[in-house]
Amino acid sequence: MRITVVSCFMFLLLLLHLTAYAGNSNVNPAGDGYVELSILDHFRNYTGSRNAGDFLALFNVPANSVLRQQPLISISDGRTAVFLAIKMPAVDGKTPNFALNGADMLTLKPIKSGEYQVTVLPHKGVSQASLLAASGSTVHEYPINVAPPLSAGIDLTENNFNSFLRVPIDVNNDGRTDYLDDYIFTANYLAIQRTVGRDMGARKERALKRTLSVIPATKEIEYDPRLFDDLPQAGK
User: Which residues pair with 91 in a beta bridge?
Assistant: First the structure.
C-alpha cells in the first residue's frame, strides 16, 4: 500500500480547490469536498454572553466520524505533537493524498484498510491548522484544534479566568480584543486545569468535566489506538 504526502505544488492545488467551499456553510460533506468548522470558528461565530460555562461548552464538540484528534486541543508550543486518525477509503484503488496547513507531518502510516494514523507537529504559535485529504475528485479540509501558549506572566487560575471574562485582554498582542483572545485564553485555561486537576463548582464544573473527558493531561499524551475504535467502517 502506498500513501502519498503531496508536494508543494499539489498542496497549492488542494488549497485552490478548497477556495470553492471556504465560507460556504451549505456544502454537503458527501459531495465534492468541504471545509469543517474548527473550535476557533465556533468562537468566531459565538454571540452569547461571556461566561465560563458557555466558553467551555464551545470546546465540547461532537465526535467526528472521519477524523479524531488527540488531544482535542493542543497548545502550539513547537514541541507537543498531535495524533490524528482519519477514515479515508481508497477510490478506484488509489490511496489518498494528505497535506498540512500550519503544521509539519512527523509520521503517516496505515492502521487498517481505509484508516490512517498521522502524527503532526503544529507550528509554534499558530492558532489554527488543518489536514487536507484528497481522495479521488474530493478534497476535504479537517481542522486541527490548536492554540498558542500564553505568556509566562499570565496565571491561569479560576479567579484570573473570571477576571478575563469580565474584562478581556489582548493576549495575542494583535492590538485588539476579540474572539481570538477568548479562544486562546480558554484553551490555555483548559490545558492547565486538565493538567493540575483543579476542582471547580456548579455549571463550570459540569462543562469542564464534559470537555476534559476527551482532553488528556499533558503527561498522558500518548497515542492510544483504542480512542478511535468507534470510528464507523467505511460505507456504514
Answer: 94
Q: Model confidence at 44, in pLDDT bands (50, 70, 90)? A: very high
Single out the residue of 53, 27, 13 nearest to residue 162, CA to CA: 53
Q: d(Cα 68, Cα 62) in Å, to the nearest integer?
A: 11
Neighbours of 194 (CB within 10 A): 21
- Please give the pLDDT value at position 188: 94
Residue 13 grid cell? 492545488
Domain boundaries, the chain: 1-229
Dump pLDDT digits (tens) for 156-168.
888 999 999 999 9
User: What pTM does this model have?
Assistant: 0.72
Alpha helix (H) residue ranges in 90-216: 158-166, 179-196, 202-212
CB 59 within 8 A of CB 186: yes
Q: Give the separation between CA 85 and CA 215, rounded to whole angstroms.
A: 15
CA distance 194 to 198: 8
pLDDT for res 193: 75
Phi, psi of 74 (to 5 degrees): -120, 140
For residue 162, the model assigns a pLDDT of 93
Query: Which fold would CATH assign to domain 1-229?
Result: Immunoglobulin-like (2.60.40)
pLDDT by residue (tens digit) across 108-117?
988 888 889 9
List phi, psi (to 5°) of 148.
-70, 155
Please calculate the CA angle 64-70-74 and round it to the nearest 5 degrees. Answer: 110
